[in-house]
Structure formats: C-alpha cells, structure tokens
Amino acid sequence: MELRIAQEDPDQADIISLLDDGEQHSASLYPPESNHHLSLEALRAAHIRFLVARDATGRAVATGALALFGPWAELKRMWVVPAMRGRGISKAVLEALEARAREERVGCLRLETGVENYAALSLYERSGFVRCGPFGDYRPDPLSVFMQKQLA
C-alpha cells in the first residue's frame, strides 16, 4: 500500500474527523478520567510534531503525534481508520514518529495507552517498548499501561 506520511496541521476537516473517531473509541472503552487525548489546540503547540498518513488518493488514514519534552518525547494520538487496519499503517506511522524523534535528538520515547488496546500494546511491544511506571503528569491508573523505548 502506498502511503505518504508527513507533518501536517491537525486543524483540517478530515483530520478532525479522525481525531473525533479516536476519542469516541476511547470513550467507549474507558471513563473520561482515563482518557488523555491532547486537544486540537494542544496538538498545534510548538513542541508537538503531528504526522498524518495519507493513501495514494490523498485520503487521511492515520495520525500520530510526538510531544517533545527535551531528552524524552511522548507518543500521542496514534489512530488508524478501522477499515485500513491490518495493513502495516500503524507500524509505518510509529516508525516515522521514531525517526522524527531521533532527528529531534530524543533519547527516550514514552507512551500511555489503555489496558484494552490489545493491538496497540502488541505493536508497541513488537517495536521494542517496555512497560514502565507513570511519567510526566500521569498518575497510576489501573486502566492505563505506560511504556517506553530507549532510542540512543
């Protein structure tokens, strides 16, 4: 499958639709206090690198963001359109985010995901992420899984 993954402004109708779908999915699995989505405004901040995967027709099929915090960064807003799953898109987006993190001289990538996000957990584990404790402003949550990967 032909994909173009590039940094884009998330304030586009097709992207907002994908972000909304991701939020609705999370809301169907977890209570509000266990969902940690960055708002559209936050995704446009200077320390965020927001990537979009588009198919050969230009349709947005996936998103992912990197929130930079000096020596480490957090993965945010990983989402693949359900009809496009199982085609390696999430792996391609993750690899693009990791490459961008290396360009930004990030030494450690971190993430938080839900305990019921089995496909995401499998992807992250296959990609070398290991479980860790809460980081940044996160607090322990039995519905959250925290992971990290050393890049350097």
Keywords:
152 residues, alpha+beta, seven-stranded mixed beta sheet, 7 strands
What do you see in this structure?
The chain has 152 residues and is α+β, with helices and mostly antiparallel strands. It is globular and about 40 Å long. A seven-stranded mixed beta sheet has the order 1-2-3-4-5-7-6, with helices on both faces. Strand 3 and strand 4 form a beta hairpin. The termini are far apart. The protein contains four helices and seven strands; from the N terminus they run βααβββαβαββ.
Summarize the topology.
Blueprint: E1 3-7, H1 13-29, H2 40-43, E2 48-55, E3 60-69, E4 72-80, H3 89-103, E5 108-114, H4 118-126, E6 130-132, E7 144-150
Parallel strand pairs: 4-5
Antiparallel strand pairs: 1-2, 2-3, 3-4, 5-7, 6-7
For the biggest sheet, the summary is: 7 strands, mixed
Give helix and strand order, one letter per element, not per position. EHHEEEHEHEE
Number of helices: 4
Beta-strand segment tally:
7
Give the overall shape. Answer: globular
Placed side by side, the strands forming the largest sheet appear as 1-2-3-4-5-7-6
Rounded average pLDDT: 95
Radius of gyration: 14 Å
Helix content: 25-40%
What portion of residues belong to β-strands? 25-35%
Q: Whole-Å distance between the termini? A: 30 Å
SSE class: alpha+beta
> Which runs of at least 5 residues are low in confidence (pLDDT < 50)?
none
